[in-house]
Amino acid sequence: MSQFYKLHIKEVRRETPNTVSVAFTIPLEFQDFYKFTAGQYVTLKLTLDGEEIRRAYSICSSPNSGELRVAIKAVPKGKFSQFANKQLQAGHVLDVSVPEGKFIFEPKDKQRSIALFAAGSGITPILSIAKSILEDESNSTVLLVYGNKSVEETIFHQEIQDLQQKYMGRLIVEYAFTAKPSGDSYFGRIDKSIVNNVLFNKHNEITFDKFYVCGPEEMINTVSNTLKEHNVLEKDIKFELFTTSSSSEKEIETGNGHTKIKVICDGDEQEFEMSQKQTVLEASLKQGIDVPYSCQGGVCSSCICRVTDGKAEMKKNQILTDSEIEEGLILSCQAIPTTTSITVDFDDI
């Protein structure tokens, strides 16, 4: 269950023409709540024009840094991201959830090589993971493959260059630019040919133990499929989606009737009837139940709950594993009830 605390903004820093990074001041009494693992995210909440808006943003700082910082890239018609890029300032207060998420890196006392792939703002959790590896695994090597339009639109470009200097020989960076190549960068999106060339030609002397991928769905699928063609095990590939395509949605046959639903959240139980055309999240919010959620697009894990009675199917799922689904976990923003009654528990996750 997401918990929010009001935090003051310590700094708003311009990273690219359309991206800012935002650092928060963590009061002493909240510091235990905001300890995080590399790869996690927080949800930011505020009210704009009378509408409550929540958005999930990955933490880009290192767990060792003592700083909580996220990056926010402005997207067309993105109400929150446009506001953040144009109006957020140091001293402003936002509701910030405690860190959460399953796309995580936990350092170990061993020597290994890890490949990281990112496109655009997908660099935010990947940068945190890279820092964690370099700081906490002193003998490990990191390869970062990072795609953007140009150097000017590359989030954290200078910071990555500085890390290369600091960790000479341990951090290898390969850039791919779609609009304006630079130096020895690749030209185009991160595709099968780039993955093959980087991993199995240019750096074929390195055996990589784990692969972390973050960005658009098409890039994640391309990288994952290429790795599997080279016999990389699925368990060694971790990914986090920032956007999904509508084509990945599954058609769910539902009736025109209603489902009697019991929602357990924060120890309270509420029962009501919902349309079988609604998702569990939509119906719960309509009833005024303060269930956790963020993206509402099936790309974060804020709205996970457990079905303890009845059944539901998800329109799309890129987060939960088959075993988690068998245990009854669902993404409530994607789940449609398929039985006449259902019980969902947001506390039992």
TrEMBL record:
Cofactor or coenzyme needed: FAD
Keyword Transmembrane helix: no
UniProt keyword annotation of Metal-binding present: yes
Residue ranges occupied by any 2Fe-2S ferredoxin-type domain in the UniProt entry: 259-349
InterPro entries for the chain: 2Fe-2S_ferredoxin-like_sf, 2Fe-2S_ferredoxin-type, 2Fe2S_fd_BS, Beta-grasp_dom_sf, Cbr1-like_FAD-bd_dom, FAD-bd_FR_type, Flavoprot_Pyr_Nucl_cyt_Rdtase, FNR_nucleotide-bd
Molecular function via GO: 2 iron, 2 sulfur cluster binding; flavin adenine dinucleotide binding; metal ion binding; oxidoreductase activity
Residue ranges annotated for the FAD-binding FR-type domain, each copy included: 2-106
Database matches in SUPFAM superfamilies: 2Fe-2S ferredoxin-like, Ferredoxin reductase-like, C-terminal NADP-linked domain, Riboflavin synthase domain-like
Pfam families named in the record: FAD_binding_6, Fer2, NAD_binding_1
Keywords: 2Fe-2S, FAD, Flavoprotein, Iron, Iron-sulfur, Metal-binding, Oxidoreductase
Protein name from the UniProt record: Ring-1,2-phenylacetyl-CoA epoxidase subunit PaaE
